[in-house]
Amino acid sequence: MQKKLHIRKGDLVYVNAGEDKGKKGRVLEVIRKSSRAIVEGVNMITRHTKPNAQYPQGGRIEKEAPIHISNLVLVDPKTSEPTRIGRRKNEEGKLVRYAKKSGEEIK
């Protein structure tokens, strides 16, 4: 059984620990097996590559590395502040995520 995570692809998150503390970015990918996420512009690494079809020039390529989801907090859609996440049923009886600070539902 896979773990239930509080972060999904496309969410706007705030980094609360590590070298990139204080940065905000969109989640590009979630790796559930290792509880990590790739966030746009966060945890950048440099890779040296040979010339290939994707990079005909080769050289040094900067890209995002996975960051553990315990170091990420979802950003409240109403206040743009970091907030914790809760789950509750909406009017249709569907389970949805909501921001604990403002009570706003997260799409």
Describe this structure in words.
There is one protein chain. This protein has no helices and ten strands. The chain is mainly beta. The protein has one domain (12-48, 60-106): SH3 type barrels, CATH 2.30.30. The strands form three sheets. A five-stranded antiparallel sheet has the order 6-3-2-1-7, with no helix packed on it. The protein is elongated.
Give a concise summary.
This protein is an all-beta fold.
Features:
107 residues, mainly beta, SH3 type barrels, five-stranded antiparallel beta sheet, three-stranded antiparallel beta sheet, 10 strands, elongated
Q: Over all CA atoms, what is the radius of gyration?
A: 17 Å
Beta-strand percentage range: 35-45%
CATH-assigned fold name: SH3 type barrels
Mean pLDDT: 93
Tell me the number of structural domains: 1
Named CATH architecture: Roll
Shape: elongated
CATH level 1 name = Mainly Beta
Helix content: under 10%
Strand order of the largest sheet: 6-3-2-1-7
Sheet bearing the most strands, described?
Answer: 5 strands, antiparallel
Number of DSSP helices?
A: 0
How many β-strand runs? 10
Head-to-tail CA distance between termini? 25 Å
What structural class is derived from the secondary structure elements?
A: mainly beta
Taking pLDDT < 50 over at least 5 consecutive residues as the criterion, the unreliable ranges are: none
H/E element sequence: EEEEEEEEEE
